From TrEMBL:
Enzyme class: ligase
Protein's recorded name: UDP-N-acetylmuramoylalanine--D-glutamate ligase
Binding site for ATP: 110-116
GO cellular component, one term: cytoplasm
Transmembrane segments: none
Species annotation: Marivirga tractuosa (strain ATCC 23168 / DSM 4126 / NBRC 15989 / NCIMB 1408 / VKM B-1430 / H-43) (Microscilla tractuosa)
PROSITE patterns hit by this protein: FOLYLPOLYGLU_SYNT_1
Keyword Nucleotide-binding: yes
Record-level GO BP terms: cell division; cell wall organization; peptidoglycan biosynthetic process; regulation of cell shape
Residue ranges occupied by any Mur ligase C-terminal domain in the UniProt entry: 309-421
Length: 455
């Protein structure tokens, strides 16, 4: 009799896991409490995978050999609690996929910067001609890709929710970029639980593996000192020069590895700001661990394009640069964004507040010359910044926000969408918010061009 695998959630990861499980001969059933997209339904139909939507039928779920859960489904959801109560293993899609790859894993986590570091690392390996796949919390499902192809290397963005579903998952190179309190509702509102979740990425590593840590982050440093692990620690930092690892100074990023020193000019980086130097240190250090030569890394770095919705330049109008940072849904991410610019900023901020403490931004908001609040409830933002910023405007329209930004700015200044908040009051998600920002910019650009032609 075939072992029965249940997939909870039919998004990208769940559908991919279902397709791989079916291809490997399991009895597969998919259950999604919401609505399954038409594209994913078509994939399940084609693979002859049974599914339900709009409900979780216990009789069809709680007879499972194993459950693969979407990272977005909290462990305290009733059907998950009942499965755990019956000692049914509940794992993540990446944990399942790991059992079917012969490739080496590069796993990247952190509160902020995961996507940029994942994409840059993948870019460097891909440009060097390595056999490399991309997956995890970005791009296509690793499990879904494994139905047709495997790679020598997999670069995976891993959220804490995904890491919580790891049992045997073992990255050859594991990277921890930073930790700031986030998603604490999933961790009993205890930051120490969230930190422990991040660090469990390293739990299965051995002495032949590598742990890359930004140890100038106090939460990372303090936890690592008290909880040493088996893999080889490589640090990346700014203040001190590590014996082995990477560091950055104004002239470049330097990697110390195997008693050799490798230097890469800051001019090669297309991503700006101190936080992106941290991301670049992690990516370049990883590239060196995969034996990529310096000249190939130096050739590849200038070709890298920033990911969408993360400090993404959408264009210039009369020397005014419009930056889409819609992915900055917490205060810490906005701190990095504001810190990345020395030019005056017109800052578009707001949305669904996540318990934000805006005082954390006081040190980096001194070059904000105007604030445009974009959200249904902006009182908290206005109250905090009313004595710090001379101009505070308010709107619930992205088009109005972009036009206001243009009118309030002048040459060499920046109109920055970096919301610090979730998007669900006015938009479908942060991608929709960022796309609407880009569209509003394009409409404004066209309107200005038409006026110019008519004169």
């Amino acid at each position: 009799m075939k072992e029965r695998i249940i997939i909870l959630g039919a998004g990208e990861s769940g559908t991919g896991a279902a397709l791989l499980a079916k291809a490997k001969g399991y009895d597969v059933f998919v259950s999604d409490f919401g609505v399954i997209s038409e594209g994913n339904k078509a994939s399940l139909y084609q693979a002859e995978v049974s599914f339900e939507e709009g409900k979780h039928t216990e009789d069809l779920i709680l007879n499972a050999y194993k459950i693969i859960k979407s990272p977005g489904i909290a462990p305290n959801v009733e059907i998950v609690k009942k499965a755990l109560g019956k000692n049914i293993p509940v794992i993540d899609e990446l944990e399942f996929a790991f059992g079917f790859t012969k490739g080496k894993i590069i796993a990247i986590t952190g509160t902020n910067g995961k996507s940029t570091t994942t994409m840059l690392t993948y870019h460097l390996l891909k440009e060097a001609g390595l056999s490399v796949g991309l997956g995890g919390n970005i791009g296509k499902s690793m499990a879904g890709q494994l139905v047709d192809i495997d790679f020598d290397w997999w670069v995976l963005e891993c959220s804490s929710f995904q890491i919580d579903g790891f049992v045997n998952f073992k990255p050859h190179i594991a990277i921890l970029l930073n930790i700031t309190p986030d998603h604490l509702d999933r961790y009993d509102y205890k930051v120490e639980n969230y930190v422990a979740s991040k660090f469990s990425l390293f739990k299965n590593q051995g002495k032949e593996d590598f742990a890359l840590l930004y140890t100038e982050d106090k939460l990372i440093h303090d936890y690592q000192v008290k909880h040493p692990f088996s893999s080889k620690l490589l640090e990346f930092k700014f203040e001190d020069i590590p014996y082995e690892g990477a560091y950055a100074n104004p002239s470049g990023i330097i990697v110390n590895l195997d008693k050799q020193r490798h230097t890469f000019s800051q001019d090669l980086l297309t991503i700006k700001g101190k936080h992106n130097q941290t991301n670049a240190m992690a990516s370049i250090l990883t590239a060196k661990l995969t034996k990529i030569k310096n000249d190939k890394i130096s050739e590849s770095l200038p070709k890298f394009k920033s990911i969408q919705h993360r400090l993404e330049s959408v264009g210039n109008i009369h020397g005014i640069e419009f930056i889409n940072d819609s992915k900055a849904t917490n205060v810490d991410a906005v701190y990095y964004a504001l810190d990345a610019f020395t030019r005056p900023i017109i800052w578009i901020v707001g949305g669904v507040d996540k318990g934000n403490d805006y005082s954390q931004l006081d040190a980096v908001s001194t070059n904000v010359k105007a604030i445009i609040c974009l959200g249904k409830d902006n009182e908290k933002i206005k109250e905090h910044f009313k004595s710090r910023c001379p101009i505070i405007e308010e709107t619930q329209s992205m088009q109005d926000a972009v036009e206001m930004g243009y009118k309030l700015s002048k040459d060499r200044e920046v109109v920055l969408l970096s919301p610090a908040c979730a998007s669900f009051d006015l938009f479908k998600n942060y991608e929709d918010r960022g796309n609407q920002f880009r569209l509003a910019f394009q409409l404004l650009e066209r309107e200005i061009e038409l006026k110019k032609l008519s004169q």
